[in-house]
Specification:
Low-confidence stretches: 45-55
Strand order of the largest sheet: 1-8-3-4
Radius of gyration: 23 Å
Order of helices and strands: HHHEEEEEHEEEEEHH
Oligomer: single chain
Distance between the termini: 13 Å
Number of helices: 6
């Protein structure tokens, strides 16, 4: 479902309920808020709206698939991580996994080490631990403000961060002549979600306009329009 179809669905229900005039720019803003609501709910919040899945990321293949378009990888090297500080990309939202690599001369290859991200109180205990001391082969980390990760030991490191990126902000591109608006796919930014999840985004967006629909309503609307050849 492209951004033009999505806007048409929303405008249909708004006009049907006589909710007043809204611009395409306003719909884009509401869609972005709605998709971020769904993104956060799928990732962290069990209070999923009606007619959507209640499992969270890692608990269900359905939710894993829904979030798969937003998986990203950031590779860092020693030059980019002075003192073990990793600056995350601007589109970073949630951490999935983190690892470092250290060359082992005995093995003649890089050794990959998963990095455990700790809370500050846990970090203090680990730094003082004689049983499981931190090392380049067994590092830990904490999350700092401003999208920074601090590795321990605090040395320049090489590795990668797997994370969820922010979904693209939707844009309905168009040209206008008088009152006639013509959709322009070339200047539009599409939602990156699968159609099943786009239906849920539309449901949430309509709630901003005081309309309580469900995902099945959206599916049925699409089926009717398809049958009509629209």
């Amino acid at each position: 479902m492209n951004i033009n179809d999505i806007h048409n669905v929303i405008l249909f229900y708004i006009n049907k309920e006589q909710q007043g005039f809204v611009t395409h720019e306003e719909i884009d803003e509401v869609l972005d808020r709605a998709q971020m609501t769904l993104f956060n709910q799928y990732h962290t919040n069990p209070k999923i709206p009606a007619n959507t899945q209640i499992e969270l990321y890692g608990d269900s293949q359905r939710i894993d698939d829904a979030l798969s378009p937003f998986k990203a990888k950031y590779t860092f090297n020693a030059g980019a991580s002075p003192s073990g500080v990793i600056t995350l990309p601007a589109n970073y939202q949630h951490l999935i996994a983190l690892y470092t690599t250290v060359y082992n001369s005995t093995l003649g290859r890089n050794v990959y080490s998963a990095v455990q991200v700790l809370a500050e109180d846990e970090l203090i205990e680990r730094l003082e631990s004689q049983v499981i001391p931190i090392s380049a082969d067994d590092p830990v980390a904490i999350m700092n403000s401003n999208n920074l990760i601090q590795l321990f030991p605090e040395v320049a490191s090489t590795g990668a961060v797997y994370y969820f990126k922010r979904p693209a902000v939707p844009v309905f591109g168009y040209t206008q002549s008088g009152r006639t608006i013509t959709y322009n796919a070339g200047t539009s930014t599409q939602l990156e979600w699968r159609d099943q999840d786009i239906n849920n985004i539309i449901v949430i967006a309509l709630q901003y306009y005081g309309l309580n629909m469900n995902a099945q309503d959206i599916v049925q609307f699409g089926q009717v329009k398809e049958a009509q050849g629209q």
